[in-house]
Design brief:
single chain; mainly alpha; Fumarate Reductase Cytochrome B subunit; two-stranded antiparallel ribbon; 4 helices; 2 strands; 68% helix; elongated
Length: 180
């Protein structure tokens, strides 16, 4: 390994990172699109896909957290203390939101009386009892938390690009899939 090339994350950590990134992007995009559709079979289908993506995100998040807790990441690249604190804080908040957003969405779906049936075959238990008032209370929180996560993801991307293009410290290469 070249002396200026920082150590990389494991292939499993990289796969979980990018798999979760794609699932988040897809789910966020579908969520934005479906919310504007009139009631129709297409909208119902997209809501189901969105729920499936949420459960997939929850599962990937659990796997990613388990992997992270049992496998040390490579050492941080040199950076000012405030940047290290910002990076660690952002990562911790993202992990919280990886769980909070799908769980709040699941709670909303349960409270609204719409079951979550993963891939149309695996019915999940209701997270909370059906209650229209509770559903209306929960509904905006799913969106707010999703927007908070999207904001943190954009900050994460901007910081990674700054390290790649300005600092040129190799930070991005630690999580980039290796060449085949």
């Amino acid at each position: 390994m070249h002396a200026t090339t920082p150590p990389r994350y494991s292939n499993t950590a990289i796969a979980l990172h990018w798999g979760l990134a794609l699932a988040l992007l897809g789910s966020f995009g579908v969520g934005l699109y479906m919310a504007e559709l009139p009631v129709s079979p297409s909208r119902v289908k997209l809501y189901n896909w969105h729920k499936w993506a949420g459960i997939t995100i929850l599962t990937l998040s659990a796997l990613r957290l388990l992997w992270r807790l049992t496998h040390r990441p490579p050492p941080d690249v040199p950076m000012p203390a405030w940047q290290r604190l910002a990076a660690h804080t952002t990562h911790h908040l993202l992990y919280v939101l990886f769980f909070a957003v799908p769980l709040v969405g699941w709670a909303y779906s349960s409270a609204a009386g719409f079951p979550v049936v993963v891939f149309g075959v695996l019915p999940l238990p209701d997270w909370v009892p059906a209650d229209k008032v509770l559903a209306e209370t929960i509904k905006p929180w799913h969106g707010r938390l999703a927007w908070a996560m999207a904001s943190l993801v954009l900050m994460h991307i901007a910081a990674a690009l700054k390290h790649q293009l300005v600092d040129r410290d190799g930070l991005l290469s630690r999580m980039w899939p290796s060449r085949l």
